[in-house]
Amino acid sequence: MTEVLQHFIKLAEDLDRSAVIVSSDENDPVAVVSCPDPWRILGCGNYAAVFAHPTYKDYVVKIYGRDVEGIKDEIEVYGRLGSHPAYSECHYYGDRFLILKRIFGTTLFDCVHNGIRIEPKIIEDIDHALEYARKRGLFPHDVHGKNVMVSEGQGVIVDVSDFLIKEDCGKWKDLKLAYNKVYLRSLYRLPLSIPYSILNGVRIGYRWYKMIKRTFD
């Protein structure tokens, strides 16, 4: 363990004690109520929030705001994945936080919002990464537009917390269908900035569609 990482661990432990993260609805991302300076919030998922420190560019801290026991599964997933260009790596963990390798890039969700063209190679990269995970005994789950990122021209997966769930998840299959049937015929040819209000409406509509579909299946 390097001296830089040792010092970062101490900062992460201080952050863990002082950051306040709440969850009001299990279907919505957690929310950060309090974040000490100079930490910056990079994003919030269904279980945890991710923070970056301006002095340490190579690491992020992921702190669980609910279902804290789930951190054990995520630690195991990173152990099985090892080192792979389409995934982050876990350098250290505490009771409710992980220190991960930082990945710079733009999520597919934000690419559509900002009018950034998503190349077919990105979709292919994710397919290869998911197959790699399956060969490692994992079950890719909850792979969607906010968990997939374009980083230096490559597709990467930034959230693997549910990769031990042994049930079918059609999110990536559905996203690819939308990409091939809709995106390539429209926004790929003429990239436009799509407001978050519309994108969130699509996301909520998709959630309701899946709930209704499960009811009648």
The percent of residues in helical segments reads 25-40%
| Overall average pLDDT | 93
Order of helices and strands: HEEEEEHEEEHHEEHH
CATH superfamily of the largest domain: Transferase(Phosphotransferase) domain 1
Cα-atom radius of gyration? 18 Å
**Major β-sheet, in short?**
5 strands, antiparallel
Indicate the structural class: alpha+beta
Distance between the termini: 51 Å
Strand order of the largest sheet: 3-4-5-7-6
Domains, number:
2
CATH architecture heading of the largest domain: Orthogonal Bundle
Shape: globular
Number of DSSP strand runs: 10
CATH class of the largest domain: Mainly Alpha
Low-confidence stretches: none
Organism: Fictibacillus aquaticus
Keywords: Kinase, Serine/threonine-protein kinase, Transferase
Protein name: Serine/threonine protein kinase
GO molecular function: protein serine/threonine kinase activity
Report on the structure:
With 217 residues, the protein is α+β, with helices and mostly antiparallel strands. It folds into two domains: 3-101, Phosphorylase Kinase, domain 1 (2-Layer Sandwich), CATH 3.30.200; 106-216, Transferase(Phosphotransferase), domain 1 (Orthogonal Bundle). 38% of the residues lie in helices and 21% in strands. The chain has helices at 3-18, 71-81, 108-114, 120-135, 171-181, 196-216, and strands at residues 20-22, 31-34, 40-44, 48-53, 56-64, 90-93, 97-101, 106-107, 148-151, 154-157. A five-stranded antiparallel sheet has the order 3-4-5-7-6, sandwiched between helices. It is globular. The chain starts with a helix and ends with a helix. 27% of the residues are buried.
